[in-house]
Amino acid sequence: MWSRLSNAKASIEYCSQWPWRERTATLAKVFVSCVWLLAPPYFVLSAPRPTAAQSSLAAESIPAEHTPQEISARILQRSILQSVWGPPAYCVVRQSMSMFSMQLHGVGDYVRGGEGSGRLKYNLRMPAGDQLNTLLQVSDGQRLLSIESIGDVSRRTEVDLGKIRPRLMLTSDSLRDPVVAMYLAIGGQAELLRKIYQQYEWVSVRDGKLGDVEVWWLSGIFPSQPVPIRSVAAIDNMLFAENNSGLLPTHIEIAIGKADARLPYWLYQVAQSRVSSELSPLALSTELRIVTEWATPTLLAQEQLPPSIFELPSSSEQLFDETDKYLPPLPAMADNSVPDIVR
Prior knowledge:
By secondary structure, the chain is of the alpha+beta class. Helix content is about 25%, strand content about 30%. The protein is built from nine helices and twelve strands. It has a twelve-stranded mixed beta sheet. A hairpin with a 2-residue loop joins strand 7 and strand 8 (about 215-220). Helix 1 (about 5-15) runs antiparallel to helix 2, helix 4 (about 70-85) crosses helix 5 (about 180-185) and helix 4 runs antiparallel to helix 6 (about 190-200). It is globular. It starts with a helix and ends in a 17-residue tail after the last helix.
């Protein structure tokens, strides 16, 4: 999904001089390039209770004697673990972007199969001017297909999940290893967490609320170096270079649900921004701000997830294989050790 970063950066540099229609179309490209978006409606019925293993994972406390970076990293690692191994869930997703005194809005929803299955469906619908831009991700647990469409131009990519798992030598301890979870966090909310965990240095953490929901508020800025505990696939190593692209938001604030919630460590909101002085000397009055809400999450039972939800759409269009970007190091080379603060 980051294939258009260089084009979007150039667009930001000069877009402030363009008419309204051209600005709107360019903002749509930046919108898709900068953030993971969304999905179509499903029926949400009664919610099951989490399993004993999931409850045990969620109940672990966050130590208070460490620095904001350490505490935030611990919270995010738990959130990534839950996004991969947690129960099936559904949520509505809302997203807005403001730039050049203009706003764009995207809406959709997200379904995760959970329990390590790798299944998901995630779909964005975002009108921009007279065109509709979409982003669809579907995974049946074996392949993740992404279809990115900007107007009449689309790009289809896939990741073969069956090639990822054999390199991880999964055991019962994998449920507690955040680095293993990062390698499995491919697509949807899980990959968003994988990205922002690595792309920011977390400078503050505080208790608070988002509406009626008890959350942790985490704030971050661009780091001077990669975080020490992370996955090291090619897609991860690209993130630090993207930080220096001059395009991505440099500040972030996120809301993550507390450990005792029905869906623990749920990512409720992501607000990213970049001030005008960092964007372009041609757009001194401009500020980039992107807000994504993963709202009203609901637990799902397995019987509410028929295989048809995760069925991959067929097409004769060209398909680009991105599996190599996500491959973990070979087992002999991998170092998935985790310091005591994470355990």
